[in-house]
Amino acid sequence: xxxxxxxxxxxxxxxxxxxxxxxxxxxxxxxxxxxxxxxxxxxxxxxxxxxxxxxxxxxxxxxxxxxxxxxxxxxxxxxxxxxxxxxxxxxxxxxxxxxxxxxxxxxxxxxxx
Length: 113
Known about the structure:
CATH class: Mainly Alpha
Distance between the termini: 57 Å
CATH topology: Arc Repressor Mutant, subunit A
Low-confidence stretches: none
CATH superfamily: Winged helix-like DNA-binding domain superfamily/Winged helix DNA-binding domain
CATH architecture: Orthogonal Bundle
Mean pLDDT: 90
Strand content: 5-15%
Order of helices and strands: HHHHEEHH
Number of helices: 6
Largest sheet: 2 strands, antiparallel
């Protein structure tokens, strides 16, 4: 995944409304009207959020007669998860060092009692 697409994915995920839209679309396709229902914002505002999600490749729109249902495109989420996974070993090593230090401190404290 290119840096620009990864940046667009994280920028899109930074907004709670867009995350809620993705959560809803994970359950299946929905129209803009259906996506706007649970929010206290206008349908044009939802459309703006959808454009951000589309630019990030997270949402696509189909055509079904007069309807243009939106659907989740999960591939960019996988790429973002893979990128974050690179940092898992860093955190695991950090926690292991902390565990080792705590065990060492318990040993020192245990010897004095």
